[in-house]
Amino acid sequence: MNPTACNDEHQRIIIHIDLDCFYAQVEILKNPELKNIPMGIQQKNIVVTSNYKAREFGIRKCMLLNEAMQLCPHLVLVNGEDLSDYRSISYKVTSLLQKYSEYVERLGLDENFIDATKLVEEKLKNINKEQIQSIGNIFGSTENLCQCGCEIKVKVGTLIAAEMRKLIYEQLGLTSCAGIAHNKLLSKIICSKHKPNQQTFIYPDSALELMLSLSSVESVPGVGRVTSEILKQVNVKSIEELQNVEISKLNKLFDPEKAKFLKNLSYGVDNTLVKRSGKPLSIGLEDSCKLISAEKEVKEKLTELLKRLMLLVDKDGRIPKTIKLTVRTFDKMTKTSRRQTKQSNINSQFFTSSGPLIKLHNLEKILLILMNLFRKLVTIHRPFHITLLGLSFTKFIERMDIRHSIASFIKNDIEVQSITSIENLNYDDSSPESAAQSPSSCRESSDPESEPTPKRTKLNIFKRNLMEYDTCDSPSKLRVQDLQLSSEKHDNNLNIKCPPNADKSVFEELPLEVQQELWFEFKRTRMDSTAFGNRQKKLKSNSLLNYFVKQ
Ligand code: DGT
Ligand code: MG
After folding, report:
1. Cβ(60) to ligand 1 under 6 A?
2. pLDDT above 90: percentage of residues in the chain
3. Which phi and psi (to 5°) does residue 46 adopt?
4. Active site includes 286?
5. Cα-to-centroid distance, 49 and ligand 1 (Å)
6. CATH number for the domain running over 282-399
7. What's the DSSP call for residue 193?
8. For ligand 1, what atom is nearest to the CA of residue 111?
9. Disulfide-capable partner of 134 in 111, 155, 387, 482 (CB 3.0 to 4.6 Å)?
10. What is the pTM of this model?
């Protein structure tokens, strides 16, 4: 490296913090007696992590229970299937770090990136540069270091990282490791070089050495299993091979941006920014279960999950606008499992009046929506086997937002509801085939936190409707139904009414999507009965409408 070069890439300071044996530390906080004995966290038949005492016996993360017990017969096990305490402490850690910088990015439950560039610059103003002593372990050599000023910045970064870790320990009793470098990639890799309760730093000059010390491309953060499998097609397994492969070859396998990104990673170059993490984008729970083959059992399980989930949402304080159901089915013939998700909008008013716990009748209404989603994912008149059920709430809004702007709240809600409902008429976002056709639905199924992208033309139609809405004298007085009326001008299919045999008060609180379905089902039944010579046809036992028929 040219020691006089002033390198733009060296100007940032990124700190990566990873909590030590996180779940185990949380359990130790709850029960300090577990601190000095080998202890593992059990999820099903796996020890997902363990304290460092247990690691002395060779216990590793995600080891099978039998194997772990053989290595350490007196291993104490704590069930770690309920993640709520881990999640809540995880957010406390992020909040502490946000006191230092707004640029804190969460990764999983126990890792955070902090962009400390500004903090370092501030500190440098009030410090005698000659006296700065770095804190922690260093990776690589200190000879012929780059003279662009990066060395001193990294040193100051180590002081800040040590301060942050101290604060986490003092406030929450948790020890952690930190990595300090000029980009996210290197800070993450370096962080795990010395564990537990230590920190490690690297100067930009040693980036190449660090990358070449990794055993394979798979050990590079940002290169997942799928990418490394694709790289194998061009005989790229090691970092050196990734450095040497021609970019034109990578361009044939990946889009050019990704190809360049991978190439850069191999040299330890990572220009990605630390994104600001706010509150979680989704709050969810899922339970794997022994085979469930009856709808009644599904409903029981969903009731249980929903009650638990409502407690979490209540703690969070925000109001969700969407609920998502995840179902994993097992095919006994092919012995394969399939995971599918489907979502629906929910009426935010279910939550606004809820107090500490959601009211029972609201819970029932959400359950109806869930059972409706379930029926879309699983053909219930054929045998089915469910091995996992999951629920999550997404698209949160703050309670304050509702109080301050009822009009904008209604407007946003309608925009999303309308688009979702129309799209749902066109394709089923849960089927693999439609996922292939629609990038947004594909993203939807793979990333639980992403939102589907509305189709542009439909979005425009609804934007037009919203403009009409905006010109009303008193928009806040408009209700969902008023907006539906304006969309009727564009699409008669949306002329939805409450079926005469359904309970209107319940019907009005349902999302548009479910209202549509009920209305179409009613119309279908009416057409059927006309075709049968006006003989009243009894509703099919599995009809959604049955749920809403007046008692
Ligand atoms: P560390 O960082 O090596 O001291 O140990 P941990 O336990 O903090 O491990 P880490 O940072 O990889 O993961 C944080 C927590 O996430 C960990 O305490 C348990 C959980 N966890 C990690 N890997 C898995 C996994 O493969 N499956 C499940 N279910 N949980 C995992
Ligand atoms: Mg950790």
Report:
1. no
2. 57
3. -125, 140
4. no
5. 6
6. 3.30.1490.100
7. T
8. 11
9. 155
10. 0.63
Whether 486 contacts 480, CB under 8 Å: no
Strand-pair category, 336-345 with 14-19: unpaired
To test ligand 1's pocket by mutation, which of 17, 110, 194 has the most ligand atoms within 8 angstroms of CB?
110
pLDDT, tens digit, for every residue of 332-369? Answer: 899 899 999 999 999 887 876 545 455 677 888 999 99
User: Best substitution site from 22, 27, 93 to test ligand 1's pocket, by max atoms within 8 Å of Cβ?
Assistant: 22
Per-residue pLDDT reduced to its tens digit, 35-64: 999 999 999 999 999 999 999 999 999 999
CB 37 within 8 A of CB 6: no
Neighbours of ion ligand 2 (CB under 5 A): 18-19, 22, 110
Looking at ligand 1, which residue's alpha carbon is closest to its atom 6?
21
Tell me the CATH number of domain 3-209, given options 3.40.50.1100, 3.20.20.450, 3.30.70.20, 3.30.70.270.
3.30.70.270
Q: In angstroms, rounded to a whole number, what is the distance separating the alpha carbons of residues 350 and 508?
A: 12
pLDDT at 528: 53
| Number of the ligand closest to the Cα of 25 | 1
Task: Answer whether residue 494 shows pLDDT above 90.
Answer: no
The CATH architecture assigned to 214-266 reads: Orthogonal Bundle (1.10)
Q: Which ligand is nearest to the CA of 81?
A: 1
CA of 62 to the centre of ligand 1 (A): 8
Q: Which residues pair with 112 in a beta bridge?
A: 17, 106
| pLDDT on residue 114 | 98
pLDDT band at 109 (very low <50, low <70, confident <90, very high): very high
Chain segment 159-181, per-residue pLDDT in tens: 999 999 999 999 999 999 999 99
Q: What is the pLDDT of residue 45?
A: 95
The model's pLDDT over 308-322, given as tens digits with 9 standing for 90+, comes to 998 888 888 889 999
**Rounded distance from Cα 487 to ligand 1 centre (Å):** 49
Ligand that lies nearest to the alpha carbon of residue 198, given by its number in the listed order: 1
